[in-house]
Amino acid sequence: xxxxxxxxxxxxxxxxxxxxxxxxxxxxxxxxxxxxxxxxxxxxxxxxxxxxxxxxxxxxxxxxxxxxxxxxxxxxxxxxxxxxxxxxxxxxxxxxxxxxxxxxxxxxxxxxxxxxxxxxxxxxxxxxxxxxxxxxxxxxxxxxxxxxxxxxxxxxxxxxxxxxxxxxxxxxxxxxxxxxxxxxxxxxxxxxxxxxxxxxxxxxxxxxxxxxxxxxxxxxxxxxxxxxxxxxxxxxxxxxxxxxxxxxxxxxxxxxxxxxxxxxxxxxxxxxxxxxxxxxxxxxx
Amino acid sequence: xxxxxxxxxxxxxxxxxxxxxxxxxxxxxxxxxxxxxxxxxxxxxxxxxxxxxxxxxxxxxxxxxxxxxxxxxxxxxxxxxxxxxxxxxxxxxxxxxxxxxxxxxxxxxxxxxxxxxxxxxxxxxxxxxxxxxxxxxxxxxxxxxxxxxxxxxxxxxxxxxxxxxxxxxxxxxxxxxxxxxxxxxxxxxxxxxxxxxxxxxxxxxxxxxxxxxxxxxxxxxxxxxxxxxxxxxxxxxxxxxxxxxxxxxxxxxxxxxxxxxxxxxxxxxxxxxxxxxxxxxxxxxxxxxxxxxxxx
Amino acid sequence: xxxxxxxxxxxxxxxxxxxxxxxxxxxxxxxxxxxxxxxxxxxxxxxxxxxxxxxxxxxxxxxxxxxxxxxxxxxxxxxxxxxxxxxxxxxxxxxxxxxxxxxxxxxxxxxxxxxxxxxxxxxxxxxxxxxxxxxxxxxxxxxxxxxxxxxxxxxxxxxxxxxxxxxxxxxxxxxxxxxxxxxxxxxxxxxxxxxxxxxxxxxxxxxxxxxxxxxxxxxxxxxxxxxxxxxxxxxxxxxxxxxxxxxxxxxxxxxxxxxxxxxxxxxxxxxxx
Lengths: 285, 296, 273
Prior knowledge:
The structure holds 3 protein chains of 3 kinds.
Chain A: H1 2-5, E1 18-27, E2 34-44, E3 49-53, H2 60-68, E4 75-80, E5 83-86, E6 99-102, H3 114-125, H4 130-143, H5 159-171, E7 177-181, H6 189-205, E8 209-214, H7 217-223, E9 226-230, E10 237-242, H8 257-279
Parallel strand pairs in A: 3-8, 3-9, 6-7, 7-8
Antiparallel strand pairs in A: 1-2, 1-4, 4-5, 9-10
Helix pairs in contact in A: 3-4, 3-5, 5-6, 7-8
Chain B: H1 3-13, H2 21-34, H3 37-58, H4 70-77, H5 91-124, H6 126-139, H7 148-154, H8 159-184, H9 187-195, H10 200-237, H11 243-252, H12 256-284, H13 286-295
Chain C: H1 2-10, H2 13-39, H3 52-62, H4 66-99, H5 101-114, H6 123-129, H7 133-158, H8 162-170, H9 175-212, H10 224-235, H11 238-266
Helix pairs in contact in C: 3-11, 4-5, 4-7, 4-9, 4-10, 6-7, 7-9, 9-10, 9-11, 10-11
């Protein structure tokens, strides 16, 4: 971990600022308008790990999908580094390799080996030769401690390892933003804490903006610079909690007094929203 | 931190790419021999064959005595000088097999070449599906055999109607399963691909085709089965030569042992062709074979 | 609200598109069939089949013909007989193979070896064995559905979540209770799927058997829809061939739909998905 200390501080990252401005999303399946996101405004500075915390089914993923370009928004706008992603006159963003999603259940292609998966983005872009791409991919896998699994298929390795491969696959494209959609939800808590440290290590080495959705408060405080606690559906920021535990962090942060204080501050609000969502009978997912 | 060490642990726990299909098969075969299954299987065969022999040739039970018996069939099948002119030593036997196989090959290949692309596009393009699929669904409930007379009217000669019928059965199975395969692909795969900069065509090539592969091969398994089903029917009604024709003419000429020889041959060849399709699928989907190998 | 949704569906873009495609298909067929009298050039394949308008006219004439309905009745009777027999024998056999390992080891390989023989290859042997032609058709029909039903029941019963069984045991259920209250309902969805597929095969086999055997001993109107098609072909009335095909299509579709509805009624817990 000592090597990490020499890295540039977070403030030097200049790319990847997200500005979510007054976004509304209304689903209209059977004529019954359902408001998923309600006048939501969030400013994320470049290089920040921003944790979006809220009960299951509150509409957090809707926001993430809007940034990624999987579906449109009803009104408002989203900018990335001052450039309009979606907003007036452009209802839906175009998916692109500057914003890469790490999915809830993992979306490594099971029919490609780990190495082929990691090489996928640059292969699609076609700007580098295959040999260059594979060299770069091997190098990045070695950095992330994934050497020796290059020729395995994702189905052959542990789920924790798969998540790491997926993050490396995203980083291969030099993205500005990584969008995490509850990626560690299915992992047991021991594997989870290993994954958290590994994620931070990767983050310290390749500074990007991270937009991270979770409903696990401990995970949110341990990873994030800032917590944005969302209300249950319709989704809008209810409380913002600054996590002033200095980076780089390791597991000892989990037992610090400050950690507990922040937990206390956030827990009340989160529980209240979770109770609301439970009473409304929201289906998980 | 120690995260690289932890990773090393994970790596050694998983099986390397060196685990070959062959060694896996050998291992399974060895454990199969140790279980009671092969011996039960032998007893099962013995009971069925024994009953056949006793009921027809020893006890001469009513109804059974008219049937060709076990020894009668097998002495005919393996005779150098067969009484009814058909055994593994007569060229006529292989002529029937060869002609049936050729019809199956034409029909199955044509159905695959047309059905797989059609199914992929039906699953991939919603517009295309909305136009074409209802038509498909209207034609599908008509049993293949009901097409026999129309096929004879539409196609000249005796060969092409039989191939057409066989093709039609395979085609429906292949197309439908391929379409279901595309629909079964988790949306996050295509989303991930488009996130990583893949164009619509690249998504089709790298996600839709490999993602639908397991269903396509399930479809091809069904397809080869229904191909034999309709081929036999087609050969019995029209056509010359082929195993279905053999069975039907043997009945008309009262050469009963030939019926059973034809049936057993059909069973063996039908089984062999579907095993070939399965092996091709395993070869093309190594990722799946290895995933499943770890499963048990 | 439900009603308006139904009407919405009826006039939705998807339905209209499907109807458009079918109408275009029928028009091409009509033109193709009449291409020789209209243009002097005969469209390949389609130029040899009867036109849809001629088929409709012939069908209208047949609707009042009792022997046409007698064919429907005979085919349905055979399908019903063979299918019921396959269910009555196939479901217990599949369940028993799933429960008893020894029985499974004894008979499953034999079953697997017999299965690749197409049902229709059994027709001559069946005619020799069974005293009447009706019984031999019934046997082949039974065989068609039997394999599928057994395999589905076996697969369904084997894939039951073991925790259900353990939960039942821990609550003190007896062997019989476990079978009746866990194994049977958990296998029901597979039974429904297996019987729907089996029903499709049954119609295939009945039609073929009727064509091959020349319509059973009674012949004529007692031959069923398969024989109706065959005798139309032999008699040269090609329109009736198509009428027969469509009739069988409708009959097969409704029998499968009936099974699916029945299956939905017996497995209400699947609707929540």
